[in-house]
Amino acid sequence: MTYKNFKVETDADGIAAVTWDIPGRSMNVLDARSNEELAAIVKQLTEDAAVKGVVVTSAKEAFCAGADLTMLEGMNKAFTEILKSKGEEAASQVLFDQCRSFSLVYRAIETGGKPWVAAINGLALGGGFELTLACHYRVAAENPKTQLGLPEIKIGLFPGAGGTQRIPRMIPTQDALQMLLKGDSVNLVKAKAMKLVDAVVPAADMIKTAKDWIKAGGKAMQPWDEKGFKLPGGPVYSKAGMMVFPPANAIYRRETFDNYPAARAIMSCVYEGLQLPMDAALRVESRYFAKILRSKEAAAMIRSLFVSMQDLNKGARRPQNVPPTKVKKLAVIGAGFMGASVGFVSAQAGIDVVLIDRDQESADKGKGHARAQVDAQVAKGRMKQEAGDAVLARITPTADYNTLKDCDLVIEAVFEDRKVKAETYAKAQPMLKDGAIFASNTSTLPINSLAEEWKDQSKFIGIHFFSPVEKMMLVEIIVGKNTGDVALATALDYVRQIRKTPIVVNDSRGFFANRCVLRFTAEGLEMLLEGVPPPMIENVAKMAGMPVGPLSLSDEVALDLVLKIMKATEADLGANAIDQSQKKLLVEMVEKQGRFGRKNSKGFYDYPEKGKGSKKLWPDLGGLQTRKLDPDTLDIEEMKQRFLVVQAVEAARTVEDHVITDPREADVGSILGFGFAPFTGGTLSYIDFMGTKAFVDLCHKLQGKYGARFQPPKLLIEMAAKGETFYGRFPPKKPASVAAA
Predict the structure, then answer these.
(1) What does the alpha-carbon distance between residue 241 and residue 686 come to, in Å, rounded to a whole number?
(2) Does the first or last residue of the chain, that is N or C, have fewer Cβ atoms within 10 Å of its Cβ?
(3) Rounded CA gap, 142 and 135, in Å?
(4) How far, in Å, CA of 317 to CA of 246, rounded?
(5) Residues 109 and 23 in one domain
(6) Tens of pLDDT along 149-177?
């Protein structure tokens, strides 16, 4: 029998080699066809008396990248259609059966009576890793790049093909929960130590080792199917078990605030499943998986954090009329913290970097930042010393603008001051070669106004990095009214070179990310002025799904910078453009108290010396509040809504202002750029999944209580009246892409 996605060959010893190789894909993914074919293969080989055992492997560089998420989206759509035509019971049964089909195939491997060995030749994630767990033995080819794991939680799902049941039967419950709830992958060294892999051998010996295990009498039964099997973490209601679940539940609540249904489902699957025989436990897992697959959180996270992010990473917004470009040499003007970081990540990506500052000492200091980064990564084992030396060799610090002459791209990262930038442009322009692209890393100053200093404005663009550059995955590309397609294509290609995710926005003060996130920090200041206790402000923001509180984030941005932005906005647009009471608060903090934020170890928080404890809210902060509210009288749910709505309504304004033209960029940008509650799918998905009318009603309610900042724009009111969504009204163009994880 022939298959499309698999090749099956049986050798003279009766050992069948099942090789996974989906045509037309760079990686194997667990899709409906692969599952159907695998089911047929399992049945065929189980019934064939001549087959003594099976080795399953991949013909590609990786074993499997995970499940095809477009398939999961399709399952949800089918559920909705059946729900309309046949009712909820029929729809739920069909969805459960679909979810269960993968689990049943893997269970058939375990219980078919033939020993199966997974020969893992590379990356194995999600459903692919679950397949290896269902095999009776796992042998991996030596490869430092190989990662094994179950990352489903990161897109609002959880392992639904047996992962929540096999992992805690293989390793201690505490370790299993951590692996499932964090979604982090492990390398082969750690996987072998955890006994998730049985053998690691040279690639040339992998298949032979797998077959030798079968020939040596490899057992076709999993430990948990044997009589007397004992859980590695002990029974749930044993002393050991009760030392795991209560604290695990507390940690889960602390880390998620119950915002992620998939995380709760993992806790339930493990807790309930470990009290049941394997077949019953797998049914429990499938029921939870079908429920979570229908959740709005899973739908939102799959769309934004996987499908949309893949589209953007693959050039969804790239002008198709421009041939591919590659930056071979980059100049960064301004070797301060931001410029030095941009230079470092670029050199890491193999680009030669010229780091320019006002004098050699300042430029050398910028390279020193890169050296510190390399030393830290080498110390942690994340980088070899030779690789680090190669990165540093690609960075040339200098004060000489003549070095710009052979650069393909120049990024300006000087002080956020129009005069300083204008002086920089005057020095740089005469030195550029024909066709070179010039970009500003400005975080707030409009690109159109900066471009006025440029002769050929078609070559001028904004490339806005987020701090810390080494960790932040988002880059905001700002297109001015005269920016050309070549500049845009070059910027997008460069961002792809340094392996970050780009969003493209049109010019505006604050662009997209800063417009939205400054609303979040401003709301925190507003609550402070209202008399809300500072710890409550911070905690409620995290309960809403934000990674840090607004006071903490203000400190990270730097209070003196926030004040500077505020004053610049007031100078350009007038006194009514800013909140004068907030300005007064920041003047007190910055100019009178000398509190600039984390950068000088004192802001809304006090920061200890490195390695000496954790930051704490400034004890005298309450003294700046002219009134104090009783926390027991405050509506926590409403406070959470204030934090999210104030950002989402600003995102809607950016659509009305044509700053955002593709909803994917608002959603991906808001999560990656400033940590907007990931479970919502991003700022515009937050509105779409709530329902535009319900969101507008909520805006009006908050506007009546707290002011005009919650006023919905005309576009949103119009959409609410028509029952429209952002993804319905502004459907994103789909590039040809592989949708799998």
Answers:
(1) 38
(2) N
(3) 19
(4) 48
(5) yes
(6) 999 999 999 999 999 999 999 999 999 99
| Cβ atoms of residues 460 and 445 within 8 Å | no
Q: What is the pLDDT of residues 681-695, one digit of tens each?
A: 999 999 999 999 999
Considering only CA atoms, which of 639, 566, 562 is closest in space to residue 599?
Answer: 562
pLDDT-derived band at 739, boundaries 50, 70, 90: very low
- Boundaries of domain holding 437: 329-509
C-alpha 540/C-alpha 535 separation (Å) is: 9
Whether residue 605 has pLDDT greater than 60: yes
Whole-number Å distance between alpha carbons of 489 and 474: 17
Model confidence pLDDT, tens digit, residues 342-351? 999 999 999 9
Residues 6+ positions from 576 with CB-CB distance below 8 Å:
none
Question: Which entry of 136, 464, 658, 700 is annotated as an active-site residue?
Answer: 464
Vertex 636 angle, CA 630 and 637, to 5° = 155
Pick the closest to residue 672 from 410, 540, 495, 539 (CA basis): 495
Say if strands 124-125 and 437-440 run parallel, antiparallel, or are unpaired: unpaired
103 and 72 together in one domain: yes
> Has residue 301 been placed in a domain?
no
Cβ neighbours of 12 (radius 10 Å): 5
The Cα–Cα gap between 77 and 79 comes to 5
Residue 398 to residue 254: CA distance in whole angstroms: 48
Q: Which two tokens stand for residue 145?
A: 């790049």
Digit-coded pLDDT (tens) for 720-738: 999 999 999 999 876 543 3
> Residue 146, SS3?
coil
Cis ω before 468 (30° cut-off from 0) = yes
More confident: 446 or 649: 649
Place of tokens 């269970």: 107
What H or E segment, with its residue span, contains residue 479? strand 474-479
The CATH number of the domain where 641 resides is what? Answer: 1.10.1040.50
- Among 449, 477, 509, the domain-final residue is 509
pLDDT given for residue 73 in this prediction: 78
Give the CA angle between residues 349, 517, 499 to the nearest 5°: 15
| Alpha-carbon torsion, ordered 172, 176, 177, 182, to 10 deg | 140
681: left (phi over 0), alpha (psi -120 to 50) or beta: left
- For the chain, what's the residue count? 741
Encoded tokens for 582: 């907030």
Is residue 464 annotated as a catalytic residue, yes or no? yes
User: Residues 155, 181: contact at Cβ < 8 Å?
Assistant: no
Q: How confident is the model at residue 599, as a pLDDT?
A: 85
Answer whether 712's CB lies under 8 Å from 700's CB.
yes
Positive or negative, the CA dihedral 360, 366, 369, 371 is: negative
Could you tell me what percent of the chain has a pLDDT over 90? 82
Residues sharing a CB contact under 8 Å with residue 38, sequence separation 6 or more, in sequence order: 6, 105
Regarding whether 233 and 150 lie in a shared domain, the answer is yes
By three-state DSSP, how is residue 142 classified?
coil
Average pLDDT, whole number, for the chain?
Answer: 93
For residues 592 and 504, membership in a common domain is answered with no
- Any long-range contacts for 373-378 (C-beta under 8 Å, 24+ apart)? 373/344, 373/470
Give pTM, 2 decimals. Answer: 0.90
User: Are 473 and 561 members of one domain?
Assistant: no
pLDDT tens column, 6-45: 999 999 999 999 999 999 999 999 999 999 999 999 999 9
d(CA 39, CA 554): 55
CA distance 187 to 282: 27
Q: Give the domain-ending residue among 509, 533, 568.
A: 509
Q: What is the DSSP string of 356-380?
A: E-SSHHHHHHHHHHHHHHHHHHHHT
CA distance 736 to 315: 10
Task: Say if residues 301 and 155 touch (Cβ distance below 8 Å).
Answer: yes
* Residue 519: inside a domain: yes
